[in-house]
Amino acid sequence: MSSRRLFGRRGKPLNGPRALPSRGAAAPVSPLPGGGRRPVVVLRAVTKTYKAGEVEVHALRRVSLTVEAGDFVAIMGASGSGKSTMMNIIGCLDVPTRGHYWLEGVDVRELEDSDLSRIRNRKIGFVFQNYNLVPRTTALANVELALAYGGVKPKERHARAMAALREVGLEDRSHHLPSEMSGGQQQRAAIARALVTAPALILADEPTGNLDTASSNEVMAIFSRLNAEGRTVVIITHEQDIASFARRIVRLRDGQIYEDSRIVPVHTSDTRMEQREAPAEAAPASGNLSGGAS
Amino acid sequence: MNVFDNLRVAIGGISSNKLRSVLTTLGVLIGVSAVIILVAVGTGSSQAVESRINQLGTNTLTVFNTGRFGRASGTQTQVASLTIADVNALENPNNAPDVKSVSPVVSTSETATYGSATYTTTVEGSTPSYLTAEDYTVQAGSEISSQDITSHAQVVDIGSDVASNLFTTGENPLGATIMIGSTNFEVIGVLASKGTSGLTDQDAIAIAPYTAVEDHLTGYSQSFSELIVQGRSASTLNLAEAEVENVLAAQNDTTVADLPFQVLNQATLLSTVESTSSTFTVLLAAVAAISLLVGGIGVMNIMLVTVTERTHEIGIRKAIGAPKSAILTQFLFEAVLLSLIGGTVGVVIGVVGSRFKIAGVQPVIAPYSIVLAFGVSIAVGVFFGFYPANRAASLRPIDALRYE
């Protein structure tokens, strides 16, 4: 699995967050656990303001957050809490007004437009609420597209795209157009597209928002399985049921983190258990999840 | 994304709205075929005019009687006329060394009859040199001779149209006696066809000795309708023109400026016609180019609509990591493909359309017009596609994704 290689590898030396003196952040910040583990996402005092006419809207106020490799984080909050802004910033679709964001040690504020697209392609796999498959394009072509933009050769593209579709159980739908697939199938194709590039982070924005319960469970089972395989997953949701699949829940209110709770310890391929701050009931919950996924 | 990926995406985009793509293509198609056909019509008509003038002979001068009053001596005025004395003076090499031959022409239109067949033809009464000067060759039989002139022989060389219209049953015209007006003429030769060009049918002609024509058809008047003067060469034609004017002025006791005759130089005429017809061609090409431009604006218009329509798709592509250049290429490919299809079909229609006669002109395809029209259609795609494509590529992914 190419994704495993990605996670097993030691990261580049971080030039930012570790060296940074921990300034008194306004929001409560969960300290970095596991000294040896590499953080994928590091937000430090990130502020985002929009101008709505004359009024300045503070979507995020000095938010700091660290997501480690192999974690499964749910970001929760009501509408207007800033969770979508946070998702856009983590996904490199938007840049912070102030503060810093390191993705795998790279400060995205210093990046050009073309570098940002490369980062989105190589390091982030997006899953959206409304699936966002390219219309008039088969499931397979949609998955291949992510590889095509990354400059992967056509032959290799096909093999990798088929493997990704197999992983989400959609290999028999590979030549279907988005309009010929159910919502659940479309979302699974979108997940295949997100994971095919072996990104550092799978970022899902309300992935079950348009799905019925059965499809939701199916999709969440896939996320759980991907995480169990060592992938880092961040999902944004307002549903408690969905968030309960995660190992860690971050709650946002008025552009600030007001609660950050770990449910299940971070699971990685090399260090199986890391109990430093995990609640005791973590292990059985994890067992349930993997059972639901198969 | 390689070229094939881009091509596939562009074809997908074009085929997603077929009717609209066809209509957009039509704009370029009409522009390209219009350029090719109209330039071909312009080229064809100028070639037709030029060949007609060439058939008249490029090293001939035509002297017309303008009908002005000639010499005014005392109280007596008399109408100037081209006489045999003028012809003799011009044929004198001491007077006009650059003149090769002078053919006096008595011209009339008569009905020719053979058996029950009749045909209206131009009858040119002239001398043997007329045939050379006017570039007529005898296909069968013989030319009229100097002896025929002096003996006032009632013999005639007939044009191919006269022959075919009078001798409908296919019998040999040579030696046959036909009636022109009310006089019998013996056919001694049939002229090779010069073809029709423009206003006059050059094969509807009967050439007879001017003496016989004067005797029996026009009546003896001591004057000719025109003189065909053949120069020694095309390069000395202007010298010959000056000599002819001087001789005629001397013959009529007047100055060159007051000469009652007009001397028409075919070379001058040719260059005038050439410049006129090239202006005509440029004008046609300009009209066609404007329609190509309008087609290009159509491409741009549709591409702007397409970009707006696919804003969300652009957002998706950008979110999964499409660089600006990939989006730019995608839409540029689509625009160029649209105009390329229009250009290709336009060239085919232009070439096929140029095979038909348009407004009496057989179009002649100018190869440069095909290359130009095709090249411009691609350039139109690039030029008018760039702005919409760049607009698409410059969209912020977050805005594009939010667009529904």
Structural account:
- The complex is a heterodimer of chains A (294) and B (404).
- Chain A is 33% helix and 23% strand.
- Chain A has 294 residues and is of the alpha/beta class.
- Chain A has one domain: P-loop containing nucleotide triphosphate hydrolases (Rossmann fold), CATH 3.40.50.
- Chain A is globular and about 50 Å long.
- The two termini of chain A are 19 Å apart.
- The model of chain A is unreliable at 1-36 and 269-294 (pLDDT under 50).
- In chain B, 54% of the residues lie in helices and 20% in strands.
- With 404 residues, chain B is α+β, with helices and mostly antiparallel strands.
- The relative contact order of chain B is 0.19.
- A six-stranded mixed beta barrel of chain B has the order 4-5-12-7-9-8, surrounded by four helices.
- In chain B, helix 2 packs across helix 11.
- Chain B has a domain at 3-52 and 272-402.
Key terms:
heterodimer, A: 294 residues, alpha/beta, Rossmann fold, six-stranded mixed beta sheet, 10 strands, disordered C terminus, B: 404 residues, alpha+beta, six-stranded mixed beta barrel, two-stranded antiparallel sheet
